[in-house]
Amino acid sequence: MQKPQSWITRILATSLLSVTVLLSLQHSSAQALRSGSWSWPVAGPHTISRDYSAPTSAYSRGHRGIDLVAEPGTEILSPADGVVHFAGWVVDRPVLSVDHGGVLSTFEPVEALVQKGDSISRGQVIGLLTEGPHCACVHMGARQGENYLSPLAMLSIVPAAVLLPWD
After folding, report:
1. Element (H, E) at 32
2. Confidence of residue 140 (pLDDT cuts 50, 70, 90)
3. CATH says 33-155 is which class?
4. Bridge pairing between strands 137-144 and 103-108
5. Which residue in 6, 39, 57, 154 has a CA-CA distance of 20 to 30 Å to 67?
6. What's the DSSP call for residue 53?
7. What is the spatial distance between Cα 21 and Cα 27, in angstroms, rounded to a whole number?
């Protein structure tokens, strides 16, 4: 039989961790990060030509998003309600990013049909796919602060995690 103090310590540690995580995420950020909360930025079928590959550090190699097969001229839809964060050129391609309450979605190469500061709704046409440098695809990224995330975490329906007893 386990000592009551050990059981109480585990409960307190788990509770403290849960409270810390909840307090560190703003309500809007938590909503934006919920699995399945984003809709696809292009009409189906949804074929991923290159998957997300997390970088090991801020400046290391990786693929900070997913590439969805699409032809130039394809309408790009906002995956969730938000505010246009950036619409312009970065190096050699047009880029569009949307702030969904602390989580940014980014799209390239996309000619923006909206401007910085515009409020947009989920499913609204926000741009048109242009010719890309490496594929007939739209690159979709996601970022919270300086941390890159896999957009699939918000696009896919992943079952909620269930915490089981430690015993």
Report:
1. helix 27-33
2. very high
3. mainly beta
4. antiparallel
5. 57
6. B
7. 11
| Residue 19 predicted with pLDDT over 60 | no
Identity of the residue numbered 77 = L
Q: How far apart are CA 129 and CA 42, in angstroms?
A: 10
Instruction: With beta carbons less than 8 A apart as the criterion, state whether 91 and 21 touch.
Output: no
By CB atoms closer than 10 A (0-12, 13-18, 19+), residue 137 is buried
CB contact burial 35-66 (16+ within 10 A = b; e otherwise): eebbeebbeeeeeeeeebeeeeeeeeeebbbb
Q: How is residue 128 written in tokens?
A: 């048109």
pTM of the model as a whole? 0.71
* pLDDT tens track for 22-45: 434 443 444 455 556 899 999 988
**63: confidence class by pLDDT, cuts 50, 70, 90:** confident
CA distances from 46 to 95, 132, 149, 152, 156 (A): 21, 18, 19, 11, 11
Give 25 or 144, the one with higher predicted confidence: 144
